[in-house]
């Protein structure tokens, strides 16, 4: 048998077939183009969005490192820097606290010295910007914008002189408040909200602080593999030979990363699945329509393999036409348009911060689009190759089945609705593909919208801040001037837009040694690295001197709203009436988490105490009439304490303001927290600030001010995030347009036949519009049913700020409305655009 080389013949047939079906091929090419374009842009914007959110988180942390070692010795620094797993290790030493600038009391602004590694490799990457240079001379200082704002300096300039008072943190504890003139060598902005500054080595040496001083020196360690394990940290500890030191590490980082990566992988899979279904459906409709044609080719001798190759050849031609165009359009948008808009949004952006996309993005996007096109052609190609000539001649692409004939008793409107419903469901495979495409696109959009809402700066700040603005009396531990008066608080309450004002009062108290109450806690304290000194010696002094400064405590008074918040955090274990009456209190260890056993040992015990002033008036403490007692109903963490200032190692006691007032006679208000009816309300905040205008001894912390610092980056996050959401919605719309265009094009003969038996064009358009509405409504119901649990799972996996899940109703309803309108209007528009010939001409072209 002679083998005939008919590849040229097959190629010619393929070319002729491709040209004959140019309208269908345009639809297919456009589907591939849009899939490629959207994949490339979603990749580019997605990675830029993720990098921007990560950068914002880094700036909120204030420094770029993975773990830190406390009180590092010089030999430990050298050993750690020499380790193969360590990328960089920089030394940071807290050496002084600014107390005052001119006439303004400062909120304990901390001054640090950083070595070159820490400043250049770990601090600078976490700054949005910095002006000037790191201090070199003793009188030079570099301050955060938050610190400068607290000093009343809104427009700083390098070289300006500042007269300040500071407290050196010498290791021997003999530091005294010192006055001096400083030269501002530079200033910077991060998102920590902390008032801090950096000083030179000569200043560090004069302060007396050392890197081995307790809690003041730290070694910031950046690892080559940030996704470290507990075993790797243990290896680091062994290599450093720790001596009552700790390496602080977040062991949840690898787990959180895996959750985040899984969430992103799910979203990427759904994006690619939507593109796959779009291409698959277009090819499936086209090849189903051409089954008779393929059967005829078989009758003249074309083999199944040749037919399959013909389909793949056409798919490759479509890919070669659509993929490069899609990549070019994606590169134009992601590489030119988006950076231009981002520069308008945030002119301070560095070039490397604008877009992180590179050539690899387009290589991956093009490869995935090609794979999607070829893979989506498998089923249609197999269908074309497997068709038998006799069956192909009788093949009808519309499988209506044994359905009852249309009934006219419903009236014309009922007939059109019935026909639309049957047309929607008659080809179950096509319906499933279109439905799944809508479902996946809708689920992706819902998930992306949830993630965007989760990473919105307002949402992050609302989750991490318990108030809109807080005012603190900076004289609390010194002169105790009554600056936050009831009159001032009434003025704040009267400001339009203020929802509530929470008042926190405080006073020093003496708690005599009561080993039955705090004995286990003190032992845990002295066995920890936070040990104040010699346990036996200090306890002996404590017994003789109940007011010994190391064991002073504070009595914290909170109002009704403060109680509700505290009780909610504690698991609602407090009885409100008992708390208000002063019969129970919450104990909060000031320095350490004493551990479960030591904490539980305090529970239910009654603690005796008396105001510090009463002890000072008596020659010797003897348990006089001023002594009070409360039962410890709960033990909180440091984050549960609404007060800001602390005294000694004895746990603070939180009681009601009513009880504190009865016990003390007078009330000293340490701070107030203000909530607005509308968070981030600028007019309300301006009026609230005016109440304390010119008061240099009252500091403030504002959520709005923090947001303003983050605003430019937040606009970048929103633009990128909303861009991704828009493209996902666009994917759903274009998928539907492609599918309906292919469907109407391939049903042209059927529609002409319906028109020939009396159905008007208005009725045909109405039928198509009802089909579109049916797809939209069914897909919306399914996307909610599937999207809610999927978006919730992704949300929980990426919930780094422990926020509450919130459904993005506004964006979802807006997109659904647009999709519903398009689903209704697009089929009618496609019909009007493509079915222009006479009924006879369209019937002649019906294959």
From TrEMBL:
It is found in: Cell membrane. GO terms for molecular function: transmembrane transporter activity. Signal peptide: none annotated. The keyword Acetylation does not apply. The chain crosses the membrane at residues 26-50, 261-283, 315-338, 358-376, 431-453, 719-737, 773-793, 813-832. GO terms for cellular component: plasma membrane. InterPro entries: ABC3_permease_C (IPR003838), Macrolide_Exporter_MacB (IPR050250). It comes from the Bacteria. It is a multi-pass membrane protein. The keyword Membrane applies. Residues 266-341, 724-828 form the ABC3 transporter permease C-terminal domain. Keywords: Cell membrane, Membrane, Transmembrane, Transmembrane helix. Belongs to the ABC-4 integral membrane protein family. This is ABC transporter permease. It comes from Eisenbergiella massiliensis.
């Amino acid at each position: 048998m002679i083998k005939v080389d008919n590849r040229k013949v097959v190629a010619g047939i393929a070319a002729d077939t491709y040209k004959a079906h140019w309208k269908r091929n345009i639809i297919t090419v456009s589907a591939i183009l849009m899939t490629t374009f959207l994949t490339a842009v979603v990749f580019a914007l997605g990675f830029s969005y993720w990098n921007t959110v990560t950068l914002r988180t880094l700036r909120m942390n204030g420094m770029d490192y993975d773990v830190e070692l406390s009180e590092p010795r010089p030999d430990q620094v050298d050993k750690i820097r020499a380790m193969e797993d360590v990328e960089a290790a920089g030394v940071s030493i807290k050496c002084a606290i600014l107390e005052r600038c001119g006439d303004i009391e400062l909120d304990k602004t901390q001054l640090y010295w950083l070595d070159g590694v820490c400043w250049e490799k770990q601090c600078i990457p976490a700054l949005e910007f910095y002006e000037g240079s790191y201090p070199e001379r003793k009188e030079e200082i570099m301050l955060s914008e938050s610190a400068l704002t607290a000093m009343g300096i809104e427009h700083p300039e390098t070289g300006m002189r500042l007269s300040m008072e500071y407290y050196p943190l010498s290791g021997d504890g003999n530091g005294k408040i010192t006055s001096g003139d400083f030269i501002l060598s530079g200033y910077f902005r991060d998102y920590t909200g902390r008032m801090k500054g950096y000083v030179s080595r000569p200043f560090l040496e004069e302060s007396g602080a050392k890197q081995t001083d307790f809690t003041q020196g730290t070694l910031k360690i950046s690892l080559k593999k940030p996704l470290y394990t507990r075993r790797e940290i243990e290896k680091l500890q062994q290599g450093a030979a720790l001596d009552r030191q700790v390496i602080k590490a977040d062991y949840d980082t690898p787990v959180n990363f895996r959750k985040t990566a899984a969430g992103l992988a799910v979203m990427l899979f759904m994006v690619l699945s939507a593109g796959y279904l779009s291409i698959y459906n277009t090819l499936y409709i086209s090849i189903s329509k051409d089954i008779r044609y393929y059967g005829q080719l078989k009758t003249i001798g074309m083999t199944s393999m040749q037919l399959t190759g013909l389909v793949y050849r056409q798919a490759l031609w479509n890919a070669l036409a659509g993929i490069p165009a899609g990549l070019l359009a994606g590169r134009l948008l992601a590489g030119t348009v988006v950076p231009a808009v981002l520069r308008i949004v945030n002119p301070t952006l560095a070039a490397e911060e604008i877009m992180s996309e590179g050539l690899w993005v387009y290589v991956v996007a093009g490869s995935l689009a090609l794979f999607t096109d070829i893979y989506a052609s498998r089923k249609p190609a197999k269908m074309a190759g497997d068709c038998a000539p006799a069956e192909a001649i009788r093949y009808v692409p519309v499988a209506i089945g044994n359905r009852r004939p249309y009934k006219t008793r419903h009236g014309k409107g009922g007939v059109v609705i019935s026909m639309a419903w049957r047309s929607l469901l008659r080809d179950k495979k096509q319906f499933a593909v279109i439905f799944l495409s809508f479902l996946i696109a809708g689920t992706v959009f819902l998930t992306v919208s949830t993630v965007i809402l989760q990473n919105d700066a307002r949402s992050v700040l609302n989750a991490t801040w318990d108030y809109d603005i807080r005012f603190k009396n900076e004289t609390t531990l010194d002169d105790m001037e009554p600056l936050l008066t009831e009159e001032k608080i009434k003025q704040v309450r009267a400001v339009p837009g203020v929802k509530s004002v929470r008042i926190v009062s405080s006073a020093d108290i003496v708690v005599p040694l009561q080993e039955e109450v705090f004995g286990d806690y003190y032992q845990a304290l002295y066995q920890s690295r936070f040990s104040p000194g010699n346990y036996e010696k200090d306890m002996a002094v404590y017994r003789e001197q109940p007011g010994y400064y190391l064991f002073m405590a504070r009595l914290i008074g909170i109002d009704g709203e403060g109680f509700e918040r505290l009780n909610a955090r504690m698991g609602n274990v407090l009885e409100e009436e008992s708390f208000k009456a002063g019969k129970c209190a919450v104990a909060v260890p000031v320095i350490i988490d004493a551990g479960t056993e030591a904490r539980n040992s305090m529970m239910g015990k009654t603690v005796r105490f008396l105001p510090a002033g009463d002890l000072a008036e008596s020659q010797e403490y003897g348990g006089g009439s001023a002594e009070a007692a409360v039962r410890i109903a709960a033990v909180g963490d440091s984050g549960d304490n609404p007060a800001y200032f602390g005294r000694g190692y004895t746990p603070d006691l939180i009681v009601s303001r009513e009880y504190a007032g009865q016990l003390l006679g007078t009330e000293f208000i340490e701070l107030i927290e203000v909530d607005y009816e509308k968070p981030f309300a600028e007019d309300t905040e301006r009026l609230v600030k005016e109440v304390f205008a010119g008061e240099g001894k009252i500091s403030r912390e504002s959520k709005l001010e923090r947001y303003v610092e983050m605003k430019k980056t937040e606009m970048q996050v929103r633009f990128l995030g909303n861009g991704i959401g828009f493209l996902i919605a666009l994917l759903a719309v274009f998928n539907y347009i492609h599918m309906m265009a292919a469907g109407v094009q391939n049903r042209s003969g059927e529609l002409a036949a319906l028109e020939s038996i009396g159905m008007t064009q208005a009725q045909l358009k109405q039928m198509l519009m009802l089909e579109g509405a049916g797809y939209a409504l069914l897909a919306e119901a399914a996307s909610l049913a599937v999207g809610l649990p999927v978006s919730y799972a992704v949300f929980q996996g990426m919930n780094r700020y422990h926020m509450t899940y919130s459904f993005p109703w506004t964006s979802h309803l807006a997109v659904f409305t647009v999709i519903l309108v398009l689903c209704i209007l697009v089929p009618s528009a496609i019909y009007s655009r493509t079915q222009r010939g006479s009924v006879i001409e369209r019937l002649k072209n019906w294959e």
